[in-house]
Design brief:
The chain is α+β, with helices and mostly antiparallel strands and 261 residues long. It is 33% helix and 25% strand. It is built from eleven helices and eight strands. Strand 5 (155-160) and strand 6 (166-180) form a beta hairpin.
Length: 261
Amino acid sequence: MSELKGEVFRVRQTRSGNLGLGRRLSELRSLAGLTQAQMAKRLGMTQGAVSGLEAREDTYVSTLRKYVEALGASLHIDARFDAQSTMVSTISDVFDLEFGSDDQFVLPLYEDDRHRAQRDFVLSIRPEYSEQILDGRKTVELRRRFPLHVPDGTLAFIYTTSPRRALTGVARISHVKKMPKEEIWETFAHTAGIDKAGFDNYFTGLESGFSIVFSKAKKLSRSLELNELRQQFRFQPPQSFLYAKPVLREFLKHDCSDLVD
């Protein structure tokens, strides 16, 4: 065996409180069936340098990344917060409950962009609004809560709710903004497809909200009914939104091809 397959590299504290990082790297190299000399060749360094690295209790993240990639893996560093921590309470207004965890919230601190999964969304939208989006008359969707940091090229798969109950379209998210609700109305009153009474009712009890601005939208070549979604993708309609499973995005990639740069 000459390569260690996988996406996750974990280091745990030893009883003495140190990470024991070098020893762990040495163990992984051995599991990959590599000698120090072979590892040195992959890294472009001397065997003595590899030996020194494997004797250390800490190292630079950049060095750790190169070592892990030489094993055929990728480096991810996360901060894990207890669900009751102040951090989770602070960010809870940005995430719907579907993103919550009963015991932990995991915040990525370091990832290699080449290995980062595309995090597209499924939005549940009432029929009268989804039709406006897919016809190009409605270019912004308003939400009480939504993740604020959305990468360029993120897609929103549109699930049209009852009585239609089908995945009917896809839109490209241009950007997401969190704004005072008065500013949302002033900015998007003519593009949100909702009247003032409905707007006020939706944002009752909140001082601010989220606007999801679409740059493109189109109907799917074939709508996917709820029964088919459940059978093929174990899909359950979200109350508001959820992350789309990669298998669903792969299935619909033809419909998305002209929406992704």
